[in-house]
Every structure is written in structure tokens, then in C-alpha cells.
Amino acid sequence: MKALVTGGTGFVGASLVRELIAQSWEVRALVRKESPGGNLEGLEVERIQGDLLDPTSLEKAMKGCDALFHCAAHYALWTPKPDLLYESNVTGTANILEVAGNLGIERIVYTSTVAAVGRPENGSLGTEEHFVNPDKAVGHYKRSKVLAEQKVREAAGNGLPVITVNPSAPVGPFDIKPTPTGQMILDFVRGKVPAYMDTGLNLVDVRDVARGHILALEKGRPGERYILANRNMTLKEIFDLLGTLTGIPSPRVRLPYFVALAAAFFDEAITGRVLGRTPRVTVSGVRMTKNKMWYDASKAIRELGFRQSPVEQALRDAVDWFRQNGYAN
Questions:
Q1: Is residue 251 part of a domain?
Q2: How many domains, in total, are found in the chain?
């Protein structure tokens, strides 16, 4: 069996490539010309250069494959060019689904995010039954992923055998960029987290997410979505656990929401627009903290046999990988 993985050089995609190889799949990765290839180094994977906005390159990459894992996405909570998010995440997804349909790909898994899963007003956990109104989505990234999921549901409604997975915040080794969650861990290790906010995340081992993709391919129902998540934790609990694992003191000061929001506006204005660098604190990121991003993975556990590894080990492996690869200096 041969699978095409888009976004194979990224955090989730590279973990998926490793797991597919471990399960004896032939793996082909779609890579952009400018993509760093470090996450695929030493792996038996065929690299095909292409772009989500170039259907001809997608057709070339997909020919001869039995399955498609569409993990590629432009993940940024701030960008000076929001249109790029919609081109990659929405138009790119529509393009690859169309090509997959034309080629008759038998099984397709689309990687979404829990950011596209709604939370009930009563504060209970988000499930696959809850959707986000794109007009009310916080920030361009979240809105682009909501719109991309709409493209996926439309394709599934037209008979395309596509299954959606919605990972929460993955953590673990090989977070090469790193992701915003990985950056949070790295900032803690560097001693750059003086305070915390009253918010919460759901953490999951990135290797569980990779295995969850394959389970979705094998057991998932086309047209359905599956939350790949594990442990709901407050931000303070995450920092306390990191403190236990590293010996670095956890912050004791809680930062008020309005102070963080003001700092984000300032950082985007000065760091982003004046200096032309990526802000450390983003308005979208702060606004997302108003609601705890807590979710229920029961459906994936029940229907797919999704397994959840201890978050403690995933965090420990993330810290070790950052340190061993020179990120923590």
C-alpha cells in the first residue's frame, strides 16, 4: 500500500510518515521547494516537489497512491498577508480533494484542528457535533480551517471517501518549526514564562495523533470527523507539570486578560508591522484564551480504537528533543 502525505515535513506530518513506515506502508511526501527537509532525514520516503495551488503537481504526486493524508496547512496566528492562509488552507484543500476524486483515491484523511470544533455555551466539552460559524471564528487561521472543513464536508456529501480528524494540541519530539504549543514549552525551558493566564488546552502526544490518522483511514466513516485529543489541562497545570519534569520553577503570577490583550496589540504593531518580525504575543492567540479549549475524544476511542499515551512522557520527550537539538540554548 502506498500513501501520499502532504505536509510531511511538518510536525504532525513527519510523525505520520514515521508511523506509516513503521507499519510497512510505502510513503510519498509532497514537499514545497522551500520546505526544510530535516524532519524526513534518514527516512525511506519518496519526496515529490509540488504545491497545493498547482493541481498538475498534485496529480503527479498522487498517481499510483492508494491513500491520501492531507496534513499540509499554513499554521500562523499572525501574518502580514492573511490571504496566504486562505489560499493554502481553503483553496489548497479544495484543489487536492478535486484531484483525489478525479484519480479515484480510495481513502482520504484530512487533518483539521480542534480550533474548528465548537464549544457548547454551557461550558461542557467540545465534541464532533459542534461546529464553528466562520464569521465568528477568532482570527484568520481559525477561520481558514473552518472554511476548509466546509470544503471537506461538501466533497464528502458528493461521495468522496474523506474522513476528518481534529487533533488538539500535539506535543512531542520533532517539533522542528516549532508550533505555537511547542514554542510555549520552549519558552518555559528557556525561563521566559514569567506569568500564566486563566485558560486551558487539551494536550495529546503527536505520535498518538499519527496513529490516529491511520486508524481513521482504516476504520473511520467517510464524512465523519474524529477528535484526536487526550488530557484537558489548565495552563497553570501544564506549567506546573513542566516544572516537575525540568526542575524549572513554574510561574506564580496570573496575567489578567486585558493586560495580555494590550501587550498583544502592542507586539503586533511594533514587532510585526514596524520591525517585520513575527510577534511573540498575538491578538488571536490571546483572544482564544477567553475559553478553555477542552474536548472529548470518546468518539475516536469508541469507533477507531484511538489510544492515548501519558501526556507526561510526551512533554518530557518534547523538552529532551528541544534540548538535544540546540533549541533551548
A1: no
A2: 1
